[in-house]
Amino acid sequence: MAREGSKHGKGGRSVHSSTTSSPSTSAPSFPVHTFCGAMMEENMLDAEDIFTLWDPVGSSSAKMRPLFCGSRTEARRFLRAVDNLQRAMKFFAEDSSISGTAAIIRCQNLMQAAMRRLRREFHQILSAKRDTLDSESVSHNSSYSSLSDLENEDVSSPTESVGDLQRASDLRLIADSMISSGYGKECVDIYRLVRRSVVEEGLYKLGFDKSTPSQVQRRDWDLLENRIWNWVAASKVAVRVLFSGERVLCAQIFSSSSVRETVYAEIAAEAATRFFGFPELVVSKAKFSPEKIFRLLDIYETILDLLPDIESLFSYQSTSAVRSQVVASLLKVGEVVRFLFDELESSIQKEHSKEVISGGGLHPLARYVANYISLLADYSSTLEDVFAEHPVEMPAESLLEAGTFMSAPPSPSSRGGEGPLSTVSLRIGWLIFVLLCKLDTKAEHYGEPALGYLFLANNLHYIVSKVRRCKLSDLLGDDWMATHAARARRYGANYERLAWNDVLGAIPADLAAISEMDADEVALQMRRFNDSFAAACRRQASWVVTDRRMAEELKLSIAGKVISAYRPFYVRCRGEGSSGGAVRFAPEDLANYISDLFCAGTGSSVSSGSGSSKDASSRRCSKTV
Which pairs with CB-CB distance under 8 Å and at least 24 residues apart come from 183-188? Predict the structure, then answer.
């Protein structure tokens, strides 16, 4: 079967070509006893010609040219030669003669040369396609204006996620060829080396880097919060693009092999375990105060949202460590959230400052807690999951008995047909109850009971307004708001009664009795009213009502009571010539002074001048009795 020439002419081909892949420089003569034997020898010689041409060790031109390019004609011919060589090796393996052994050795050398080329092609294609999931594309995916933009992106399509169909097909064909030839380990090693670095680089570009427990402990809150924000923002891209893309790519390339599960686990499991271990590391090593609960809820909400995707992506037994880590992080974050909830209640109860708020205005504690719980309401569905297996421990009858949380058992009609209050509603309602109890204690520190009631009215009205303007209204219901709004009005009514009773008491209740008084008695009664009204205005000069509408309602109510009672008395006194000099305020003056109430900082003062409405109006903020 000697053949001459280097061309594939019809009459023969060279079997003396030199290659480093073969230990011999000339082909031995193999006895051909059957037609199959002749075909197998032909396969071996065809493979030798093709592999020699593309062996990167023996050919300088082969180092420069890619095998898988253009129409892929040469690539198909190369892979067909590998398949034929495998069949030849199986055939010669059954021949125990010396010639059969020599043929096997020669086939093995040729196969090594083929695998060298395929390893090179596999690595080149994988490296060239890093742009699918490398830093640039990850930055693109993380630069969407909102996460909903990412959800609208089709990341499930293999060709869109991991490269064009042709490249993925090339990688699959090479992998199939190497695995079937007994070089699966070499193929997997190359794939793992390249793709693992892609995953690491992708997570790094998303803002996630490796942190040790000591590093977390040393970070101040601003830096740690920024890391948490980065993790939350990166999670959806990491799960639905990075890890999902790797699983799709792995399934494509190793579609005909059982190794794809192991390969995916070796590429993604370690990085994913470390990524999803970050929340547990943070809550285990960092110190949290109640106001930091919101970042933890962001983490919990993110994990909860991605949990179905994670369970699907890491469903293999070999990736069970990832699922376990996700559950561990979720449980640990939930535990700290519940702890911080309790810490907030404890901090409210432990607030023992006796300092009073000037003018009966908003207490910082009321403002802090009201804003805190209004933000918590945005996480109501997340909190329901956090407290799903941790029901409210305080007995419901204690809430009803206190008369502050609810006036009646919850009804479907009061909450849009939702029925009884949820665990989160009860917990938030209990926090408000604890706050109101503390504010009751704060009100006792005011020397004047009227100012204490004004303080309670201000703070409760602020809380109700906060509830009404956010999702808390849905959580607590209409009954809750109506009950507490009515309580705030009662506080305002108590303020009116205590602050203005002396003024109303200075006005004779029986107008018929006034007609029987002599002029001196009428003048004395008028002076008593003047002093009482002036004292009330001076005393309340620095008192405040923080809500404008509530302030106007209180002033209208006060003016209605005082002026309606004063007007007949004023007319009677003006009719008495001898007692008319005792009149200092016309009804219009009273209206002006009352309208200037609750202006913190301006402190409306009462004039000592005549009763003229015009004169009183011009002097009421400049002189003091």
Answer: 183/115, 183/118, 183/119, 184/257, 184/259, 186/115, 186/119, 187/118, 187/119, 187/122, 188/259, 188/262, 188/263, 188/266
* Domain ranges for the chain: 33-56+66-132, 183-339, 351-406+422-497, 507-596
Q: Which amino acid is at 517?
A: M
pLDDT recorded at residue 338: 93
* Residue 231, C-beta contacts closer than 8 angstroms, at least 6 positions apart: 207, 208, 275, 278, 279, 299
583, 574 contact by CB (below 8 A): yes
Rounded distance between C-alpha atoms, residue 189 and residue 184, angstroms: 8
Residue 599 is predicted with a pLDDT of: 78
Give the C-alpha separation, 227 to 219, whole Å: 10
List the single range of 23-37, 464-478, 499-513 with lowest mean pLDDT: 23-37
Burial (0-12, 13-18, 19+ Cβ within 10 Å), 199: buried
Nearest Cα neighbor of 480 from 442, 429, 555, 544 is 429
Q: How far apart are CA 229 and CA 79, in angstroms?
A: 49
Q: What is the pLDDT of residues 41-50, one digit of tens each?
A: 776 777 677 7
Give residue 359's pLDDT.
92
Helix (H) or strand (E) holding 249: helix 244-253
Lowest mean pLDDT segment, chosen from 10-24, 96-110, 457-471: 10-24
Nearest to 181 by CA among 78, 28, 98: 78
pTM of the prediction? Answer: 0.75
Of 363, 384, 337, which is closest to residue 439 (Cα–Cα)?
A: 363
- Judge contact between 68 and 76, C-beta under 8 A: no
Q: Is the distance from CB of 542 to CB of 600 less than 8 angstroms? A: yes
Neighbours of 552 (CB within 10 A): 13
Question: Which spans in 129-243 are helix H?
Answer: 135-141, 147-152, 158-162, 165-180, 184-205, 213-218, 221-237
Alpha-helix residue ranges (DSSP H) falling in 403-544: 423-443, 449-468, 472-505, 511-516, 519-539
| Cα 24 from Cα 48, distance rounded (Å) | 12
pLDDT, tens digit, 9 for 90 and up, residues 389-428: 887 666 555 544 444 454 433 444 444 444 556 888 888 9
Alpha-carbon distance 117 to 19, whole Å?
Answer: 14
User: What's the one-letter identity of residue 325?
Assistant: Q
18 contacts 27 by C-beta, under 8 angstroms: no
